[in-house]
Design goal:
Strand content: under 5%
Number of strands: 8
Number of helices: 35
Structural class: mainly alpha
Distance between the termini: 33 Å
Shape: flat
């Protein structure tokens, strides 16, 4: 039987559960202490230069005398220097008024802290940035520890993982307190961050697996309560122990007895799933209900198209020049025709020697002279193409022009985080909840972007919008491919892409009539919000329900599909065969890090991830670089949508004939060659360059569709969303690089096309190392996924059992 059923006999949350849970959660106190203590150990201490005789009473820990002596012979602060306070960082030289650097070190105000890392390693003045760097390096340890301890917990077990994290954290905390240099301190602090997050993740996993589903929320909150109590305890401890090293030493010594809790043992068991694809023989491969659900949920992809490709319009370049003192510039009155009349008045010519600055746009003459100065009164923008973009909204021109491409990169950086986050959420919460959570968040952040009053506010919400956007796309894609049998996966994958293409084609006329970036975003979020109602009509993925052991719910969904497809009620014996049970074999472990233990899965993950990288780099480079083709941006975007639509239809036919491997390799190489040829075409041949760019985009878009289908077919059910998220995560590095590579066109014009062509061609060759998956059943377990290799003639097998029998006969 399933493991959760055992709680009917042993109790859901009895005395032993309570003792174990409340005991092991005590380990979280160390998390609270070492993490939040950053406030105290990095606390700012007022300081000034130490006098030559070193006679400063602050060194004697007499805090009251600080206010008396800290002003002696110290220069006043110059407000023009933002990062340096002259009063704290300079002194007068030999009774003169000439400020010099502190020659004898610094005296610190000890009234609040006896010592912090600021006073310990003199992290002040020019070195003050090292304080925040130390905190960042500690949190960087979280990044490494999350992956490392996830792997360790699956190899060693939850209990060993938790106490290994505790032991390492205690050790590194003590070593931090004994550090004699800044480098030594940050090294141990980084290692402490690794073990800190490992301890937290291990404890959380342990307690949630110890109880039935009905109690998981409760024990999760208990972990958080312990964290909160730890913070509350930390404050009085830090109040009485005001020396950073003694504070750390106190943590490591006082909590070390918790290691004795290792003697407490618990239970652990997981389950695995059985085959699912055979059920389509009875409920229909792609009946009426399949069609309604697929075509309905794919409507959510319109939001993806709008928010993603609209980057071309909201970040559109606007011609500009310095605004005259009287601010009388007709471009501000939205009279575009007068721009050509006034934009040359008293403006200097451009100096071609300055690559990133155009003097005509960024400089003005000073008081009717020939001396060039910066624009003192802001800029006037040409409104003939756009009413407003983020360029005009936040004055992202001249020295700040790089912030435009940075905003695009930060949006795609959200993809980086969202890929893995929503992969995990979909595997834990379910496909349907993941889809609509992503959609709701994308709508919200798009609305908040339109209301932004500063660049920082805009890029923050844009980053979060990117996180939700990719989560929505990955969730929809996973959902529709799991809803159908292998023979229909390519078709529904292409349907998702067709909706994406229609979204791009719809975006061009919408952006043509709504030329203000904030109104455009507002239109997206308001017009598509009614699609949230689909949540009440879309069922959960029955394949996911089975993978999570929710057999009864899966049966209800399957019966509903059969009824709506007019197949009728299914026999009970068919549904009974979908039962899953508890199994202790390696196939039951569902952590995505289990991929690292299987040779073929490791290789396939690396190969397919590089294909994702190349596809994203070329796709976003060609999409966001449409203005560089010297073609009308609205027409260019619409043509891009048409090109992608044709590519989707081409892909639909092509991958069913040639298979996944040859199709992916061929389209990547062809797209790279088209980009390479375009390097040699003169910029004056606009039509020819545009045609070649569209040919390149045609093949890259085709590769985009293939790589999604390929990835779904390579990963097993229990980690399919996570696997898709991992591949997508690493590809987002390419997405973040694409706007920056386009920006570097100002340095060397062919650079973007060289980068796009090189990565596309090389990834196409690497794709030939992948196995073919055409008409292969979706693997349910990691062992089945490991069987899909180039050496196995799996396309000729009806299922994985026959392949196993074939392998056994060969041995």
């Amino acid at each position: 039987m399933k493991f959760d059923n055992v709680f009917k006999y042993i109790g859901e949350y009895g005395l032993y559960h309570k003792l174990v849970t409340l005991s092991i959660c005590c380990l979280i106190f160390l998390n609270s202490f070492t993490n939040i203590s950053t406030v105290f150990i990095s606390g700012n201490m007022d300081h000034h230069c130490k006098p030559p005789d070193e006679a400063n009473c602050s060194e004697l820990y007499l805090g009251d005398c600080w206010n008396t002596n800290d002003s002696m012979s110290l220069p006043p602060d110059d407000e023009g220097t933002l990062l340096i306070n002259e009063t704290q960082c300079r002194m007068y030289a030999n009774d003169t008024t000439e400020p010099i650097d502190c020659e004898h070190g610094w005296a610190y105000d000890r009234s609040r802290y006896d010592s912090t890392i600021v006073s310990e390693f003199d992290l002040v003045c020019e070195d003050s940035y090292l304080v925040s760097l130390a905190s960042s390096l500690y949190l960087a340890g979280f990044f490494v520890g999350s992956i490392l301890f996830g792997l360790l917990c699956d190899f060693l077990g939850r209990r060993k993982g938790a106490f290994l994290g505790l032991a390492l954290t205690l050790s590194f905390t003590m070593l931090c307190s004994l550090s004699k240099s800044y480098v030594m301190y940050v090294s141990f602090r980084f290692l402490s961050g690794i073990s800190d997050i490992g301890l937290n993740v291990s404890v959380f996993t342990y307690v949630t697996e110890l109880v039935p589903p009905s109690r998981r929320a409760m024990v999760s909150i208990i972990v958080m309560i312990y964290w909160c109590f730890g913070i509350m305890m930390l404050a009085p401890i830090a109040y009485f122990i005001r020396s950073w090293d003694k504070l750390f030493l106190t943590f490591s010594i006082s909590l070390s007895p918790l290691l004795l809790l290792y003697l407490v043992k618990s239970l652990y068991c997981q389950y695995h799933t059985m085959k699912f694809d055979n059920i389509f023989k009875y409920i229909g491969e792609y009946g009426l209900y399949h069609k309604l659900v697929t075509l309905s949920i794919c409507c959510l992809i319109f939001l993806n198209s709008f928010t993603n490709i609209s980057t071309v319009f909201i970040s559109g370049n606007m011609d500009h020049h310095c605004k005259p003192p009287d601010e009388a510039n007709c471009s501000e009155l939205y009279l575009g025709d007068c721009w050509n009349t006034n934009d040359s008045m008293s403006l200097p010519p451009d100096d071609e020697g300055t690559l990133l600055i155009n003097e005509t746009q960024c400089r003005m003459y000073a008081n009717d002279t020939t001396e060039l100065i910066d624009c003192e009164h802001g800029w006037a923008f040409d409104r003939s193409r756009y009413d407003s973009t983020i360029v005009s909204e936040f004055d992202l021109v001249c020295e700040d022009s790089y912030l435009v491409s940075l905003a695009s990169s930060l949006y795609l950086a959200g993809f980086f985080v969202g890929s893995i986050l929503f992969g995990l959420l979909c595997d834990f919460l379910g496909r349907r909840k993941g889809v609509f959570l992503g959609f709701a968040l994308a709508l919200s952040f798009t609305m908040l972007c339109s209301l932004s009053k500063s660049y920082e506010m805009y890029v923050s919400f844009r980053f979060l919008g990117g996180l939700a956007d990719i989560g929505l796309y990955v969730s929809v894609f996973t959902y529709v491919t799991e809803l159908v049998p292998p023979s229909r996966r390519a078709m529904v994958s292409i349907i998702v892409m067709i909706y994406w293409c229609f979204g791009i084609m719809m975006l061009a006329p919408i952006a043509y009539f709504i030329r203000s970036w904030d109104k455009l975003f507002m239109t997206f979020s308001i017009s598509l919000s009614p699609l949230l109602l689909l949540y009440f009509f879309i069922p959960e993925s029955p394949r996911w329900l089975l993978a999570k052991g929710k057999t009864e719910e899966a049966k209800l969904v399957i019966q509903k599909i059969a009824k709506r497809n007019k197949v009728g009620d299914l026999p009970d014996d068919i549904l009974d065969n979908l039962e899953v049970g508890c199994d202790s074999s390696e196939s039951t472990k569902t952590s995505p890090l289990i991929i690292l233990r299987y040779t073929q899965m490791r290789r396939k993950t690396v190969y397919i991830t590089y294909s994702w990288f190349a596809v994203n780099l070329a796709y976003y480079g060609l999409t966001y670089g449409v203005e560089g083709l010297n073609v009308d941006v609205y027409i260019g975007t619409f043509l891009g949508g048409v090109t992608e639509l044709l590519a989707c239809l081409f892909t639909w036919f092509f991958i069913q004939k040639l298979g996944r491997r040859c199709s992916l390799a061929g389209t990547l190489v062809a797209g790279g060659v088209a980009c390479f040829i375009n390097i040699w075409i003169p910029v004056t041949l606009v039509a020819f360059r545009t045609s070649l760019a569209m040919i390149g985009k045609f093949f890259i878009t085709s590769a985009f569709g293939i790589v999604y289908i390929y990835t779904v077919e390579l990963f097993p059910t229990n980690i399919r969303s996570t696997g898709l998220g991992i591949c997508s995560l690493f590809s987002r590095v390419a997405g973040m690089l694409a706007p920056q590579i386009l920006f570097l066109e100002k340095v060397w014009a062919p650079l973007p096309l060289v980068a796009f062509s090189f990565t596309s061609v090389t990834s196409g060759l690497v794709a030939l190392l992948l196995p073919e998956t055409l008409n292969v059943p979706l693997p349910q377990t990691i062992e089945e996924a490991e069987m899909i290799t180039r050496k196995n003639n799996i396309r000729g097998n009806k299922d994985f059992e026959s392949l196993q029998m074939q392998g056994a006969a060969n041995t």
